[in-house]
Write a structure and sequence with these properties.
The complex is a heterodimer of chains A (129) and B (380). The radius of gyration of chain A is 15 Å and the shape is globular. Chain A has one domain: OB fold (Dihydrolipoamide Acetyltransferase, E2P) (Beta Barrel). Helix content of chain A is 6%, strand content 36%. A 5-stranded mixed beta barrel of chain A has the order 3-4-5-7-6. Chain A has a two-stranded antiparallel sheet with strand order 1-2. With 380 residues, chain B is an alpha/beta fold. Chain B has one domain: Thiolase/Chalcone synthase (Peroxisomal Thiolase, Chain A, domain 1, 3-Layer(aba) Sandwich), CATH 3.40.47. Chain B is built from 13 helices and 11 strands. In chain B, helix 1 crosses helix 2. The two termini of chain B are 18 Å apart. Classes of the chains: A mainly beta (129), B alpha/beta (380). Chains A and B meet through strand 3, strand 4 and strand 5 of A and helix 5 and strand 5 of B.
């Protein structure tokens, strides 16, 4: 039922402390996770990986108050962040009270298993966009 | 040549924790729908099953040897497409009478697997198309997806918790007029606000309750429908638009683009525009979806649906009565099929204490990675 897509480059990047995301290598459109066919230009298996700045904006956040899985005891936040390079991804937050719209920057916990991204407010960006 | 199609048979089981298999419930609903239409198995030459384990066993047990068969995957987003598919087959002359049969035993099955009681939502390690990007963060539930959309909607438009709560309380007031509804006790806004968060900002009563049940609908050509005992409830239009690319994350537009497109398509197909719609049956797996659907179909400007519901426009007697059965939040979560059943009952005039007076046109809509809508109506 679930289609697996190659995201090992992303996961291995996090193990090295790098935020690796993909775009279409043919036309450059942001495409993460990497599709088999580029939705814009149709190039097959053409995704290229690059290291993102880690800067973005908190697109939304929700807080689980119910424990569904033992490895994720509630409460915990789940964030969606839009990176300045375009891709959006799911991550956690260092502080669940970070408001939607806030400029954030990634902190990578490379030693967690699996490695994880936590976003914190980006002081250099200051106010919300 | 008139290629109109109509619902002539409707059957449903009780909804709740029933301890029965999906196919057993689907079979009961099918038998009820055939009896309702006064049809025997030999008169049915089309079969569409949804969330049924074995279409083959279901057909064998009910003497069906159709000329046309389809089986759809279990997601509730497939209910509108099921009706569209069957109507298209009828219009094309591939068959003349289709039974659409749905059965769900998630409640019983969940209990069997020991998920910790009667869960409000499904969860699992395999959530989404790319679990490796979601599971490490505990992003495991469709409810969380809806919670993320609501938090975004709140950021963009200031939707309040009382406005959202008006969806649950309005639906509950409707359910109290429906003897078949699962949740019929009084629900006030204070009750809503006092309930626990599940995935904040969603509270307990923003979630439909997973349950067991079955629904079956018999669809046939309009010329045949006129010979059946009930007034034909026509399928005037049906449309879908997927947003499957990037569907692991909430859409930026709350599915407004897809909703607008399918809404325009059924208005064009039916010749009946939004002003002709007497009631809306809106897919409410989680209450924020109601707001997104009202805005996407153009009933409210973006961001204004919360206030619209709070002001009573979606209640019986309001501008556009919605989910007059209590919906999936209060009547029962049958992945859209109970809403379809309610549309048929209302158009037949069988709504009882919750009847929408003089209803001629009722719309079903589901905002999802496959967004769909179906317009039902009596002859003008």
């Amino acid at each position: 039922m679930h289609v697996s897509r190659t995201v090992s480059e992303h996961v291995e990047g996090l193990r090295r402390g790098e935020l690796r995301v993909s775009r279409c290598g043919a036309c450059g459109v942001p495409a993460f996770p990497p599709p088999r066919l580029c939705p814009r230009c149709g190039a097959a298996d053409a995704a290229t990986w690059f290291t993102a700045s880690g800067r973005g904006v908190l697109w939304s956040v929700a807080v689980f108050h119910r424990t569904y899985l033992p490895e994720h005891p509630a409460p915990y936040p789940v964030a969606v962040v839009e990176l300045v390079e375009g891709p959006r991804l799911v991550a956690t937050l260092t502080d669940p009270t970070v408001p939607v719209g806030c400029a954030v920057i990634a902190e990578i916990d490379a030693r967690a298993d699996p490695p994880r991204i936590a976003f914190r407010p980006d002081d250099h960006e200051g106010a919300a966009r | 040549m008139d290629t109109s199609v109509a619902v002539v048979g409707l059957g449903s089981t009780a909804y709740g924790a029933l301890g029965r298999r999906a196919d057993d419930l689907a079979g009961e609903a099918l038998r009820a729908a055939l009896a309702d239409a006064r049809l025997v198995p030999g008169e049915v030459d089309g079969l569409l099953t949804h969330r049924v384990d074995s279409y083959e066993a279901l057909a064998a047990e009910h003497g069906l040897d159709p000329a046309w068969t389809a089986a759809l995957p279990p997601e509730g987003r497939m209910t509108g497409p099921a009706l569209q598919l069957a109507a298209t087959a009828l219009r094309a002359g591939q068959c003349h009478t289709v039974a659409l049969v749905y059965g769900n035993d998630s409640r019983t099955r969940g209990a069997t697997y020991g998920s910790g009681g009667s869960g409000s939502t499904a969860a699992g390690e395999g959530y989404g198309t790319t679990p490796a990007l979601l599971a490490p963060y505990g992003m495991t539930s469709p409810g969380a997806f809806s919670a993320l959309m609501l938090a975004r909607h709140r950021y963009r438009y200031g939707t309040t918790e009382r406005q959202l709560g008006a969806v649950a309380t309005t639906w509950r007031a409707h359910a109290r007029l429906n003897p078949a509804a699962m949740r019929r006790d009084v629900l006030t806004v204070d009750d809503y606000l006092g309930a626990r968060f599940v995935v904040e900002p969603l509270r307990l009563f923003d979630y439909c309750q997973i349950n067991d049940g079955g629904v079956a609908v018999v669809l046939t050509t309009l010329d045949r429908a006129r010979d059946r005992p009930h007034v034909p409830v026509q399928v005037l239009g049906a449309a879908q638009r997927a947003r499957l690319t990037g569907s692991d994350l909430p859409p930026d537009d709350f599915w407004a683009g897809a909703l607008g497109e399918v809404g325009r398509a059924v208005a064009r197909a039916s010749g009946r525009d939004r002003d002709a719609v007497d009631a809306l049956m809106v897919y409410d797996n989680f209450s924020p979806n109601v707001l997104f659907t009202l805005e996407g179909l153009g009933w409210c400007a973006p961001g204004e649906a919360g206030g619209w519901v709070e002001d009573g426009h979606a209640a019986l007697g309001g501008t556009l009565p919605c989910n007059t059965s209590g919906g999936q939040l209060s009547e029962g979560y049958l992945q859209g099929w109970a809403l379809v059943a309610e549309a048929v009952r209302q158009l037949r005039g069988d709504g009882g204490a919750r009847q929408v007076p003089g209803a001629r046109t009722i719309q079903y809509a589901c905002a999802a990675p496959v967004t769909s809508t179906v317009l039902f109506g009596r002859e003008a």
